[in-house]
What we know:
The structure is a single chain. By secondary structure, the chain is of the alpha/beta class. It has eleven helices and eleven strands. It has helices at about 15-30, 40-45, 80-90, 105-115, 140-160, 175-185, 200-210, 230-235, 260-280, 300-305, 310-320, and strands spanning about 5-10, 35, 50, 95-100, 120-125, 165-170, 190, 215-220, 245-250, 285-290, 295-300. The strands form two sheets. Strands 3-2-1-4-5-10-11 form a seven-stranded mixed β-sheet, sandwiched between helices. 6-O-phosphono-beta-D-fructofuranose binds near residues 11, 126, 127, 128 and 172. 6-O-phosphono-beta-D-fructofuranose (F6P) binds near residues 126, 128, 171, 222 and 255.
Amino acid sequence: MKKIALLTSGGDSPGMNAAIRSIVKTCLNKKIVPFGIFDGYQGMIDGRGKNMKYSDVDNIIQYGGTILGSARCKEFLEIEGRQKAIKFLKENEVEGLIVIGGDGTFTGAKILGQEMNIPIIGLPGTIDNDIYGTDYTIGFDTALNTVISAVDKIRDTASSHHRVFFVEVMGRDAGFIALYSAIASGAESVLIPEEITDIPRLVENIKNQNKGRRSTIILVAEGDDEGHALDIMNKVRPFLLEYDLRHSVLGHMQRGGSPSVQDRILATRMGNYAVDLLIENNSNITIGVRGTELITCSIAEAIKEHASPDLAYLKLIETLRTK
Ligand code: F6P
């Protein structure tokens, strides 16, 4: 293995730079050329990439985002686009590929691996934590810390004005961010796509929670089946006319920020392991973490299966709800 390409793809996440740094340094220390591809599969199609040096990854571990750039690339879904990408990899004598991203990234990698017969390793890089085969994805812990920092601030003002706040968080069609941050922020209720939202029950909970309390926070996952925070607020408003209701959409700030210790260590371990797996002739697998142990599963399985949050967390919130 003389040359390994790497790319980041899909929604970026804090910790991607730590993974890039680890892959590049591991390659160079093992006399392998790391070839960074810009802007995910789009850059592979456009022929944009470069051999990377130690200096390219100096002082990046602390920064969110990805120095390689990322993209969502529709052209890669077409065979013509993939053929351009394969030509670019062959021209640059790439012998192995490491992709960092979510299930869309893994889907592209699986097809590419079949059409080009190149060994590929996938790292789970997304704030959504919705990747099968791992307890945590790179960026999830940092996003949670961003969310609870924002919710703590909203709690301050909600308590000052005796308000009920509906706070919308990311997560695409999964409720991991909403559920974990609801526990960590002490939110009174949480709405996630994995559970049917019961509006009358929510109204009841808000009335009960608000008795003698200065504020109520409801976290709403953006993929919730009843709609986003504003929709939910408008649905309950007719039943809560005497309450001061407000909503807040946290949006893309959840994707940025300096990665947490957890994400920096996870990304560094996974990046180093990915290079070793390629050197040992592994192919078409994704890396995950189970507890503190790094594990692998096939890319096909990671794409096919779906990851859902442990609903015991929902039970915990209900158990702690003030009666
Ligand atoms: O997959 C990460 C994510 O942040 C999701 O939580 C969110 O729904 C989506 O990306 C937003 O995508 P974009 O940044 O392309 O608007």
